[in-house]
Amino acid sequence: MSNEDLYNKGMETRRSVLGNEHVDKAEAAKTGFDQDFQEFITNAAWGSVWGRPGLTKRERSLITIALMAALGHEEELALHLRATKNTGATTADVKEVLLHTAIYAGVPSANKAIKIAKEILK
User: Are 47 and 78 contained in the same domain?
Assistant: First the structure.
């Protein structure tokens, strides 16, 4: 797959998960400083990883939510919680993932993630 094909696949996947509004806003804010980074994450995360056939978007969404909660990446957690409307992950799925996160990543991480999820998913 050419770099251009990978980028196009990444943008398609990114838009289907995060939504056109978010991607358009991010693209409009892109500068020469972060252009290479934006291309990198579009190719690597959205084209190569999210674009693989091994897991569904719902499954990838739930894994990402658990990881963002465990690592305390609140802004990315919120982004991916909002994206559940596009991935098929339900509020019940998120509840289970965050309960699981509490056991394996710690109650404080899950507690903060649950507060964020309650606000976003209400």
Answer: no
Residues 45 and 70 in one domain: no
Structure tokens at 78: 């919120």
Q: Do 13 and 49 fall within a single domain? A: yes
Residue 24 contacts residue 43 (beta carbons within 8 Å): no
Do both 34 and 69 map to the same domain? no
Do 118 and 74 share a domain, yes or no?
A: yes
Q: Tens of pLDDT along 87-115? A: 999 999 999 999 999 999 999 999 999 99
pLDDT (tens digit, 9 = 90+) per residue, 23-46? 999 999 999 999 999 999 999 999
pTM: 0.94
Residue at a domain's end among 28, 54, 80: 54
